[in-house]
Specification:
Elements (H helix, E strand, L loop, with lengths): L3 E2 L4 E5 L6 E5 L2 H5 L3 H4 L4 H5 L1 H13 L9 E5 L2 E12 L2 E10 L8 H16 L4 H16 L3 E7 L5 E8 L10 E2 L6 H9 L2 E4 L7 E4 L22 H9 L4 E9 L2 E10 L8 H44 L6 H5 L5 H4 L4 E6 L2 E6 L5 H10 L4 E4 L2 H4 L1 H6 L5 E6 L5 E6 L4 E6 L8 E4 L2 E4 L7 E6 L8 H36 L10 E8 L7 E9 L5 E11 H21 L3 H15 L5 E8 L5 E7 L5 E3 L5 E3 L18 E4 L5 E5 L11 H12 L9 H8 L8 E8 L2
Antiparallel strand pairs: 1-11, 2-3, 2-6, 3-11, 4-5, 5-6, 7-8, 7-13, 8-9, 10-12, 12-13, 14-15, 14-18, 16-17, 17-18, 19-22, 20-21, 23-32, 24-25, 25-26, 26-27, 27-30, 28-29, 28-31, 31-32
Helix pairs in contact: 5-6, 5-9, 6-9, 9-15, 15-16, 16-17
Organism: Cellulomonas terrae
InterPro entries: Bact_Sigma-Reg, GAF, GAF-like_dom_sf, PAS-like_dom_sf, PAS_2, Phyto_chromo_attachment, Phytochrome, Phytochrome_cen-reg
Protein name: Phytochrome chromophore attachment site domain-containing protein
């Protein structure tokens, strides 16, 4: 709403349908010979004459979309004028805006004239092979059409910094091709106008604005909205900017993609004022629209080809990922790897307990994966690690950027890029904007004045991750979740099969004693490393065992099987519980260095009730006494298998008739929502006061197990008859 126009034409705003002049530009006398006061408040016929006013009245009554029918050629006196019409909202009503420019160029202006002017250019655009050719042809043809000294195709990046990607110019001018310009040169409000009004002409940079009279509308109290005005006066800062560049006249044509500004056709003239007629400007706008359409088509073509390639790579990766005989991490860095999906210098994959890599990766991959696991976002994108994540950059100084997929249970896929040093040639120092200038006691805004070539070396950044690459990574993550779920189900079934096969098919039933045992996997069927055993020994004693290998899944079940079989062998050899645990600790240390397990072993003399017991890191058994009391057994516990002391302590006791032992795993008494103290209290309560009443082991499980527990549960009950 600048309240003024460029004086190459006349501005009128009239009411409808009576066409009474409500606003007029101050330069009316110079162009049409009428005083401003003679026009305001009077019918349009008084200003333009009956023929011209009648033609405009007939035109606005006939056509709805006036901007699509511009210009209307009218004659005022002996002057032929282009009348460019549109409506503006003014309070609750509208005003008809009439902008009159002296007519020149082919007459009458029509579609055939426009088409003939650009027909050859459109043919050339149709035969362009790539974007560079599209840009070059458009710049050359717009210059030939409009006569400007220099025509540039100006493309924005994601932050609206601009780059000159094509140029057609007078031979004696310095080239601007390849130069970059900071986003501050075209501020956001100017870019918003470019998206609404596609052509802007400044025919004389040194013009003196002609004010619109009255400046404020009498009904709204506001200046008129001149967004779509072809004569709209421009920011004095922009005029000064052009003057600093030595430009005498300029024109810009918006290049849009999906309604969003992606670039401009920027035209500069240096020899003096330059005023291409409306018809030529319309033809140039048509060329700009053609370039935009072809750009969109080309980009969509390229994206389609890239999507097809990515889909093929994705299908290959996922097919390999479903091979149960290979680790998922290894399949993703195989012959067809994640680097074929998203280019990078290297990639690290952590899946199903395996970490593998391809390409150049840092030595400290553990810190990298730990950082990814801590992120909240499922897809993490960084292209300047030293600036964005200084703590991580200190651990992996060779990296400048990463694209990471965070997967369940600490799993991840991480693409890695190293520093990409490159030079950017700017048209002037972009960091020295200097837009505030003090003049006496006043401060005014001023655009930068230096446009000399300024080369910036960009360091510490990787090649940016494109939207297409991020989308491909997101698609891989979605599909990997399905693969992980499938593999998890297979592993659960395999682990459960192993687990069930290693548990005793039945427990001994010695005379005068009863043995009951139960195992239940974690919620969701997640099999862990719990097990129980009850074994009659050659010397007549009974061995009862409950153990727990850390972790879940097939690896935990497999480790449990090895420990269980070794434990049986030592007991059958005649070792005591302490000797058995010491030997097992040695086995775990040397053959399963990454495993850890807890276990409690009790040898029971069935005739006397004497018990010899040792525990490694396992919860203390519950001692049942005749009469119904249940207390935790007071005995020393060694460290878990794999980190044991080598000399597990031994506890001896006697179970009288009516007495018993309860062995269990920690999943029964400890969970995220139940403290160990409360869990033990709940378990003891199931056995207190049970004298003379048999205990239902399944009921104990139901009452004691926390539904929120993520651990499997084992319970073994040994009782001596009364």
């Amino acid at each position: 709403m600048p309240g003024s126009i460029q004086p190459r034409g006349v501005f009128l705003a009239v009411t409808e349908p009576d066409l009474v002049v409500r606003h007029v530009s101050q330069n009316l006398p110079e162009i049409l010979g009428h005083a401003v006061d003679d026009a305001l408040g009077h019918p349009l016929e008084r200003v333009l004459g009956a023929d011209a006013a009648g033609a405009i009245g007939h035109h606005v009554r006939t056509w709805g979309n006036l901007r699509a029918r511009n210009p209307l050629v009218v004659t005022v006196g002996d002057v032929e004028l282009d009348a460019v019409l549109h409506r503006v909202l003014n309070g609750d009503s509208t005003l008809l805006v009439i902008e009159l420019e002296p007519a020149s160029g082919p007459r009458p202006f029509s579609f055939p004239n426009t088409y003939q002017a650009v027909r050859g250019a459109v043919e050339k655009l149709n035969h362009a092979h790539d974007l560079a050719q599209l840009y070059e042809i458009t710049a050359r043809e717009v210059r030939a059409l409009t006569g400007f000294d220099r025509v540039m195709i100006y493309r924005f990046d994601d932050e609206y910094n601009g780059e000159v990607v094509a140029e057609a110019k007078r031979p004696d001018l310095n080239p601007f091709l390849g130069l970059h310009y900071p986003a501050s040169d075209i501020p956001p409000q100017a870019r918003a106008l470019y998206e609404k009004n596609w052509v802007r002409l400044i025919s004389d940079v040194g013009y003196t604005p002609a004010r619109i009279v009255p400046g404020l509308d009498e009904e709204t109290g506001l200046p008129l909205d001149l967004t779509h005005s072809i004569l709209r006066s421009v920011s004095p800062i922009h005029v000064e900017y052009l003057g600093n560049m030595g430009v005498a006249a300029s024109m810009s044509i918006s290049l849009l993609r999906d309604g969003r500004l992606w670039g401009l056709i920027a035209c500069h003239h240096y020899a003096g004022p330059h005023d291409p007629p409306f018809g030529v400007r319309a033809a140039a706008e048509f060329l700009g629209s053609s370039l935009s359409l072809r750009l969109v088509a080309r980009v969509e073509e390229d994206e389609l080809e890239a999507r097809v390639r990515a889909a093929g790579t994705l299908a290959t990766l996922l097919t390999a990922g479903r091979d149960e005989d290979r680790a998922l991490a290894s399949t993703l860095v195989g012959r067809t790897s994640v680097l074929d999906l998203v280019p990078a210098q290297g990639a690290v994959v952590s899946a199903d307990g395996v970490v593998d890599h391809v390409g150049r990766v840092p030595a400290d991959r553990t810190a990298l994966l730990a950082w990814v696991a801590e992120q909240d976002a499922e897809v993490v994108v960084r292209d300047a690690l030293a600036e964005q994540e200084p703590a991580l950059a200190a651990l992996v100084p060779e990296l400048a950027g990463l694209l990471a997929l965070r997967l369940p249970d600490g799993q991840a896929v991480v693409w890695l890029r190293h520093e990409a040093v490159h030079n950017v040639d700017w048209g002037g120092d972009p960091h020295n904007k200097a837009i505030a200038v003090r003049e006496g006691d006043d401060v005014r805004l001023s655009p930068r004045k230096s446009f000399a070539l300024w080369r910036e070396t960009v360091r510490g950044r990787s090649e940016p991750w494109t939207e297409r690459e991020v989308r491909s990574a997101e698609e891989l993550r979605a599909r990997l979740l399905e693969v992980l779920l499938e593999r998890s189900r297979l592993q659960v079934r395999a682990a459960e099969t192993v687990q069930r096969s290693l548990l005793p098919s039945s427990v001994p039933d010695p005379e005068g004693w009863s043995v009951h045992a139960r195992y239940e996997p974690a919620a969701g069927g997640r099999v862990g490393g719990d097990w129980y055993d009850a074994l009659g020994l050659p010397d007549g004693r009974l061995a009862v065992v409950v153990g727990d290998v850390a972790g879940h899944g097939l690896s935990a079940a497999a480790a449990m099987g090895q420990i269980r079989n070794a434990l049986r062998a030592y007991l059958l050899r005649g070792d005591s519980p302490a000797q058995t645990l010491a030997a097992l600790d040695h086995v775990v240390r040397w053959t399963m260095p990454f495993e850890m397990a807890t276990v409690v072993v009790a040898l029971v003399d069935l005739s006397t009730g004497e018990v010899e017991l040792s525990a490694a890191g396992h919860p203390r058994p519950l001692l049942l006494r005749p009469g119904g009391s249940a207390t935790l057994l007071d005995h020393a516990v060694d460290r878990p298998l794999g980190v044991g002391s080598g000399e597990p302590p031994t506890t001896t006791l006697t179970l009288p008739p009516g007495g018993g032992l309860v062995l269990y795993s920690d999943g029964l008494v400890d969970s995220r929502e139940t403290s160990l103290r409360d869990g033990l209290r709940r378990l003891s309560a199931q056995f207190d006061g049970t004298d003379g009443r048999p205990v239902d082991i399944d009921e104990v499980l139901r009452e004691c197990r926390d539904p929120a527990s993520v651990d499997d549960v084992t319970l073994l009950l040994l009782c001596r008859d009364r």
